[in-house]
Amino acid sequence: MAQVFEVITPEDKPIWLCLRQEASDALAAEPGLASMLHSTILSHDDLASALSYHIARKVGDDTLRGMTLRELAQKVYATDPSLVEAAEADLQAVYERDPAAKGYLQAFMFFKGFLALQIHRVGHRLWQEGRYTMAHYLQSRVSELFQIDIHPAARIGKGIFIDHGTGVVIGETAVVDDEVSMLHGVTLGGTGAERGDRHPKIGRGVLLGAGAKVLGNITIGEYAKVASGSVVLKPVPAHCTAAGVPARLVNCKTCEDPARKMDHTLADVDYDYVI
Questions:
Q1: pLDDT over 70 for what percent of the chain?
Q2: CB under 8 Å to 214, separation ≥6 — which residues?
Q3: What average pLDDT does the segment 57-71 reach?
Q4: DSSP code of 253?
Q5: Confidence band (pLDDT; 50, 70, 90) for 264?
Q6: 170 with 130, same domain?
Q7: Beta-carbon neighbour count of residue 155 at 10 Å?
Q8: Rounded to an integer, what distance in angstroms lies between the CA atom of residue 111 and that of residue 101?
Q9: Residue 54: inside a domain, yes or no?
Q10: What is the C-alpha separation between 150 and 137, in angstroms, rounded?
Q11: What is the band of 4 on the pLDDT scale with cuts at 50, 70, 90?
Q12: What's the Cα-to-Cα distance from 208 to each of 201, 246, 272, rounded to whole Å?
């Protein structure tokens, strides 16, 4: 029989306590995973400690030992507790938007989009402190392990859902606002060898479909939607949907909150407006 977790929502209990309860339930069902569940979740007092250990367990190697990396992440979380709050929002986003997520435990332990994002947040903080080499090292390890390449300078909000994650590329000057959802193969890239501010700015609540390419220093307005496989080279207004190669606006207004609804459908109306 498939294992089903009864998730207690944050209104009833904080996410960290929900995560611990799910880990305890999993331990009872899968005693063979006892060591992993204890070391990663159940032996910790808070989410920051568990995240620090989990990041170190995944990313540590012969060059940067796990204990060193764990201490590094712990210092970052102590310096900037908002990163832990962002991780909670990301976990909530996964649970709300991914029908495959049976609880918080799956996302925390096994979803590489979530973990890549948390490592990016640590690397971004190091980048802000001028520790560019270490930040690039973390970026490189995430790319090697998860096939997700996020430049440490990229600015990413909270409540972000990266589904599957494979092939996601986010460039140096990209900005992703809160509550955005994106699927595998999304590229937020430049259009050539120009320097300076050259990457997209993604508004709050945007949905980026699988394989969507948004290129150049352009803005995707809040609550807009980019259809799977589209190539967007010009700005997209808020609440609109862009689809095609090159992308056209196919409906304005789209659904009110596409990133939360994960609605990839397109309206029948085509305004035939090349963007």
A1: 89
A2: 186, 187, 188, 189, 200, 202, 208, 220, 226, 232
A3: 91
A4: S
A5: low
A6: no
A7: 13
A8: 9
A9: yes
A10: 12
A11: very low
A12: 12, 15, 21
